[in-house]
Write a structure and sequence with these properties.
Bound molecules: zinc ion
CATH class of the largest domain: Alpha Beta
CATH superfamily of the largest domain: ANL, N-terminal domain
Helix content: 25-40%
Number of domains: 2
Structural class: alpha/beta
Oligomer: single chain
Strand content: 15-25%
Number of strands: 20
Length: 470
């Protein structure tokens, strides 16, 4: 009977049921914490006895599993590990490092990070149960209203060595949706294919959704008539609330957001049925705390932040035997909110939609911490702009300067452009705290299909030149 009911519900989209996995999404906070603790205790004992990397770490810090009798013990006694610790381990014991923790013959798939920090790639070996278990995407899709048989589009360029595309493909199969991977096609061709197959869902970066919107307008496509989207899920990039509302209006569906990483092996956070901007406010991304133990810590004190505060994500993989991670500092900056702050009833704590950033994206200019997201919000806060590029450099006399080239949408008059350039320069000074020179881009600026790379830092080059001249 239970199966028959399930099929009935999945073919009735108007039925309001948004839990893909009620067994964990509907438990109480107390039950969730008890489950986490059971998994954590087992993990600590397991790695102590089978994983030389963690055995060495525990021995160096003079701890044994018996010393960890509570979550508090775990937080206070087990040290935080960083990307560099993992890279050192890999360099010493290539290719997986001692932390693989299983025989290499048990590895059925390998994930590698994209190396955005530019200092090397982390390597993760996964067993077959790991791969099966990590196809966590359907939880996000189901909450967004997607059901078996729906047509879904993935416009990201595919690189299955990264966890996101790899787990996405297995997620499509697990959920039973009709998945189209269109990453290899140019944008206008993607939009054409979509016109033929009428997708219900797409996962996309905010920067590429903006790009698609512009091309749709150029091609005369009205997504509300030509497609039938139920939801669009954004990943890999921050956004402003006004932008999200505008996108919802243009595409005719709710925006959702996911949070994933290669370290976690898949998607690890998702918006519930409330979406990314419920009631015109930033929504919440629920963290899958049954699979991963999340800590959001103050970067300086390493103490947990309070609800509403910003901090760094530190994660422990609770359900993986290949390359497990214990207290890994992600370098992701998030705004944390307690599970109580969302009215959906899920027991999972949350982070704010649209504001996930990376600490290593921060640029220090004239002693000020400048976040590219803050500049994005000023430039894209004006509907007339379409793209920008920022350049930090050192002048002949050794001063640090910032030049921001702004590209405007077609049909904007010179007078409006001039006024906007002046206004945005003032806004940037107010919001970011650094004076920047703004000008209109003389030629078309690069467009992005995945993660935007808008900033170049030429200061080292400039300083070297000055040093040589002296
Ligand atoms: Zn919720």
């Amino acid at each position: 009977m239970a199966i028959a009911k399930d099929i009935y519900v999945q073919h009735q989209p108007e039925v309001k049921r948004y839990y893909y996995n009620p067994a964990v999404e509907c438990i109480s906070r107390e039950e969730l914490l008890a489950l986490q603790w059971l998994k954590l205790k087992k993990l600590v004992e397991h790695v102590y006895h089978t994983n030389k990397f963690y055995r060495n770490l525990f021995t160096k810090n003079k701890i044994t599993p018996e010393d960890i009798q509570s979550l508090e013990d775990y937080r206070h006694k087990v040290p935080i590990i960083t990307k560099q610790d993992l890279l050192n381990d890999q360099n010493e014991y290539p290719p997986y490092g001692l932390r693989l923790g299983i025989p290499e013959t048990k590895v059925v798939h390998t994930h590698m990070t994209s190396g955005t920090s530019g200092i090397g790639q982390e390597v993760y070996g996964l067993t077959r149960p790991d791969v099966e278990y990590l196809a966590t995407w359907p939880r996000a899709w189901y909450a967004a209203g997607i059901r078996r048989g729906d047509v879904v589009v993935n416009p990201f360029p595919m690189n299955p060595v990264l966890a996101a595309p790899d787990s996405l493909i297995s997620g499509f199969a697990k959920m039973g949706v009709n998945g189209f991977h269109l990453g290899m096609y140019p944008t206008h061709q993607k939009l054409d294919i979509m016109r033929r197959f009428k997708p219900h869902f797409m996962d996309i970066s905010p920067v590429y959704l903006t790009r698609m919107t512009v091309i749709c307008q150029e091609m005369g496509i009205d997504p509300k008539k030509d497609y039938c989207f139920k939801a669009i899920l954004t990943m890999v990039g921050s956004f402003e609330v006004d932008w999200a509302l505008e996108m919802q209006e243009f595409w005719g569906c709710k925006l959702h957001e996911g949070y994933g990483s290669t370290q976690a092996g898949s998607l690890m956070g998702y918006t519930c049925e409330n979406g990314s901007v419920p009631n015109g406010q930033r929504g919440r991304i629920h963290l899958m705390e049954d699979i991963i133990l999340f800590e959001v810590l103050d970067r300086e004190t390493r103490e947990p932040v309070k609800s509403g505060e910003e901090g760094e994500v530190v994660l422990t993989t609770l359900s993986r035997s290949g390359s497990p991670l214990l207290r890994f500092a992600m370098d992701d900056k998030v705004r944390y909110f307690s599970y109580k702050e969302c009215d959906c009833g899920r027991p999972f704590d949350t982070i704010e939609c649209g504001t996930i950033a990376r600490y290593d994206d921060m640029i220090k200019i004239r002693g000020m911490n400048v976040w590219p997201q803050a500049v994005d919000s000023v430039i894209f806060g004006h509907k007339e702009t379409s793209e920008y590029q920022g350049r930090v450099y050192v002048t002949e006399d050794g001063r640090e300067e910032v030049l921001v080239q702004v590209e405007f949408k077609q049909g904007i008059g010179d007078q409006v452009k001039g006024d906007l350039i002046n206004r945005m320069a003032v806004e940037l000074k107010e919001k970011v705290g650094v004076s920047m020179t703004l000008e209109e881009a003389k030629e078309e600026l690069p467009k992005f299909e995945f993660k935007a790379v808008r900033w170049t830092d030429e200061r080292l080059k400039g300083r070297q030149k000055i040093a040589w001249r002296l």
